[in-house]
Amino acid sequence: MDLAKLIDHTVLLPDCSSEDIEALCEEAHKHRFAAVCVPPYFVRDVVRKLEDSPVRVATVIGFPMGYACTPAKVEEVKRAIEEGVDEVDVVINICAVKNGHWA
After folding, report:
1. Cα–Cα distance between 97 and 85 in angstroms, integer?
2. Cis peptide before 40, with omega less than 30 degrees from 0?
3. Is domain 3-98 classified as CATH 3.20.20.70?
4. In what helix (H) or strand (E) does residue 18 lie, and over which residues does it extend?
5. 94 — phi, psi (to 5°)?
6. Is 100 left (phi over 0), alpha (psi -120 to 50) or beta?
7. Distance between CA atoms of residues 69 and 12, nearest Å
8. How far is Cα 85 from Cα 35, in angstroms, rounded to an integer?
9. What is the domain partition of the chain in residue ranges?
10. pLDDT tens digit at each of 103 positions of the chain
């Protein structure tokens, strides 16, 4: 089994730099990871950087606590798709869940 093909290599630190993202992409390409997961701010650049690579590009929506309302998250997802992302991880609103508000 090739475990590398199951790994999403991720940098989601609030202070991550362009250099951190560059290193992430290089490592993912070198080790043939399934995907990189980056903050939405970096999606467009990472998509371009990995366009000739089998490494997929993922991003997060509403990270880390999911506080944004659903319509705002939908718009973030649309933007990520327009910028070429392959996968999105949408964070559920933790406060709502803890209060039993599933709607």
Report:
1. 27
2. no
3. yes
4. helix 18-31
5. -60, -40
6. left
7. 21
8. 11
9. 3-98
10. 889 999 999 999 999 999 999 999 999 999 999 999 999 999 999 999 999 999 999 999 999 999 999 999 999 999 999 999 999 999 999 999 999 998 8
* Distance, CA of 86 to CA of 8 (rounded, Å): 12
- DSSP H or E stretch at residue 89: strand 87-90
Cα distance between residue 31 and residue 100, in whole Å: 42
**Element at 37 (helix H, strand E):** strand 35-38
In whole angstroms, give the CA distance from residue 57 to residue 89. 11
Kindly write down the DSSP assignment for every residue of 38-71, as one continuous string.
Answer: E-GGGHHHHHHHTTTSS-EEEEEESTTT--S-HH
Least Cα distance to 66 among 101, 100, 96, 88 occurs for 96
What are the backbone angles phi and psi of residue 90, rounded to the nearest 5°? -100, 125
